[in-house]
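Many introductory courses stop at the sequence. We go one step further.
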Amino acid sequence: MTSNTSNESCESGPSTTVNEPRLWCHKGWSARIIKNEDDDGWAVEMRKDGEPEPALVGPWTMGRDKRNPKPLDAAAFNTLVKTASEVLRRHEQQRHALYHKQLAVDTPSGRISVTLDIIADEDDPHALLRACDAYGEPLAELRVTAGFRLSMASASAWIDDDFRKPR
């Protein structure tokens, strides 16, 4: 195999299956063994089809000759897909937690759920502050600045002020 083959990607589409010693592509994922720039070893790069950046880059085992990488195989590829998928899932959970806050406020009329959803728009960043009753029925929705801090105190003050725009 030439070194050019290992530098190619699986751009033909998600149905493309490639099983080469340094490049595997299957069901929307590609694993490519690359030279580790930090030392004399090798690394593996996992990329989901259509994504500009790899989801995972990690060290790869040397082959028996201690110079070339160990070839990819089905078991390694499946493990790498599972690991890369979990990394992407954690990133998505972290992004959701960063842009979505929720808390519950007990009031004399019942529990009110208050949420803040940040809209990270380059031209118009803002957030939506919402209140729902215990049954999920909307009570109020308001556009606020993206820097609005949702806390128990700010949510309670908003509710006590009959859902008027916070100052």
